[in-house]
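Researcher: Sequence recovery benchmark, item below. Answer with residues only.
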């Protein structure tokens, strides 16, 4: 086992990793920027080293040098920053320090979306219909689009985070979108390689947590539902998915394990799928790291994923057999973001922070009194995770927790989260990844919005609105209701 781990991250995930290390008897080294010098992870670690300017969490050489100076024998990257950077992984390993995550090769194989699609097809993992080779010209794009039918998506092979993606409704839009997507891909990812996928209308986002070890063992920890997203970022997740039954669960978890085997994956990872209204599922991508929403999986399985990560990196086997792990109860996670009602960032210095101490509630937080919330970082302040014997109890506990969560000096999305959780759309799980884009959830001051929201959601989910080559119909319906 490791003696000392450097955590090359900040906020709630740094604290989460420190907690796991303490339970395993491992010393920790935190790094922090000037803005973060009063953040909780700085005082929680055994050692803390200043890295200066706000973007220094991305400084590979500096992080590596601190690891060597402090005698850390492993680096945990958390999520974001250097967690999926194959060059950093190679540099860490070259310096005989253990990277707590997958191999650089696995990250590289899954990092190129087009290559990942081809790999999945070779291993019989269903992928969204589309191209398996880069689009070299408009003629090829037009031919493939005609074969799979509009609407389609043009995507950058090296894309991620919602960048380098463009929807095309019909043939007339294709040429302009083709040129623009290639240009955006080059600017954002250094390559103009793009490909085509059929657009899945009103999909749900279902993902499967997997683990692999160096001994060739693989296991899954069931699925999460992550469909409630704003601007391609999730804000509410739950496990298990209310839209997946045991038969489908067996199929989608099997596919996820096959995806992990296909790239010789070890450590923790997540295989993400889109599921259409007929419950067909398609591989979307693999996140080769720890996920923000991992606590809901921990809640229903009792498996500490971060401790598993560390043990696997140290050469141990996965600590359980697949048949030993079962789903017990239900869990919901809400991301508390510092943002206003328009999702614009809100900044300030926290002078009051009181987390709810209630039954069935866990709060993973990265800020406390004295913390500075700045524009330099992701708006995620903390995560509230509820657990119940069933979905209803988990929901009730979450609403109670949000009512009792106090953060001052910055605006947060807590009011929006409460409105979503109280809505019929959430209660009957009729949401999809476009719901937050198209539905204005009711406020107490304007309850009519709820009625309109339900109408829209029901129409969308039942497929009654037309998609005949023009997805703008979806938005137009909201305009007709005069709530856009």
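Model:
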């Amino acid at each position: 086992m490791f003696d000392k781990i450097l955590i090359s991250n900040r906020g709630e995930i740094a604290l989460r990793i420190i907690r796991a290390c303490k339970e395993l008897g491992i010393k920790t080294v935190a790094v922090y920027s000037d803005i973060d010098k009063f953040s909780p992870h700085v005082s929680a670690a055994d050692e803390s080293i200043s890295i200066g300017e706000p973007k220094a969490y991305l400084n590979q050489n500096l992080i590596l040098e601190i690891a060597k100076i402090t005698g850390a024998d492993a680096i945990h990257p958390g999520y974001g920053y250097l967690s999926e950077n194959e060059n950093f992984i190679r540099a860490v390993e070259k310096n005989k320090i253990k990277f707590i995550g997958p191999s650089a090769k696995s990250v590289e194989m899954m990092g190129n979306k087009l290559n990942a699609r081809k790999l999945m097809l070779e291993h019989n993992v269903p992928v969204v219909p589309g191209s398996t080779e880069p689009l070299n010209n408009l003629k090829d794009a037009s031919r493939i689009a005609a074969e799979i039918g509009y609407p389609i998506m043009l995507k950058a092979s090296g894309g991620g985070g919602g960048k380098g993606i463009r929807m095309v409704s019909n043939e007339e839009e294709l040429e302009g979108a083709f040129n623009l997507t290639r240009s955006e891909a080059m600017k954002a990812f250094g390559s103009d390689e793009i490909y085509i996928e059929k657009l899945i209308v009103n999909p749900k986002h279902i993902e499967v947590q997997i683990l692999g070890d160096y001994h060739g063992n693989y296991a899954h920890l069931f699925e999460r539902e992550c469909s409630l997203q704003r601007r391609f970022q999730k804000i509410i997740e739950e496990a298990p998915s209310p839209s997946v039954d045991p038969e489908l669960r067996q199929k989608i978890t099997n596919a996820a394990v096959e995806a992990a085997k296909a790239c010789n994956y070890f450590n923790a990872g997540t295989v993400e799928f889109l599921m259409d209204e007929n419950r067909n599922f398609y591989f979307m991508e693999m996140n080769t790291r720890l996920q923000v929403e991992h606590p809901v999986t921990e809640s229903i399985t009792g498996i500490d994923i971060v401790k598993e990560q560390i043990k696997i990196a140290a050469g141990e086997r996965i600590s359980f057999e697949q048949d030993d792990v079962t789903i017990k109860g239900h869990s919901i996670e809400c991301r508390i973001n510092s943002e206003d009602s328009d999702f614009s960032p809100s900044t300030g210095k926290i002078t009051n922070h009181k987390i709810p101490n209630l039954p069935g509630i866990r709060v993973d937080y990265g800020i406390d009194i004295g913390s500075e919330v700045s524009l330099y970082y992701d708006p995620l302040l903390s995560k509230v995770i509820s657990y119940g014997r069933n979905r209803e109890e988990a929901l009730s506990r979450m609403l109670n927790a949000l009512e009792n969560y106090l953060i001052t000096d910055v605006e947060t999305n807590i009011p929006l989260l409460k409105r979503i959780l109280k809505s019929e759309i959430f209660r009957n799980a009729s949401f999809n990844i476009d719901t937050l884009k198209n539905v204005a959830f009711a406020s107490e001051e304007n309850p009519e919005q709820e009625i309109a929201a339900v109408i829209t959601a029901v129409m969308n989910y039942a497929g009654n609105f037309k998609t005949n080559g023009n997805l703008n119909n979806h938005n137009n319906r909201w305009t007709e209701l005069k709530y856009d």
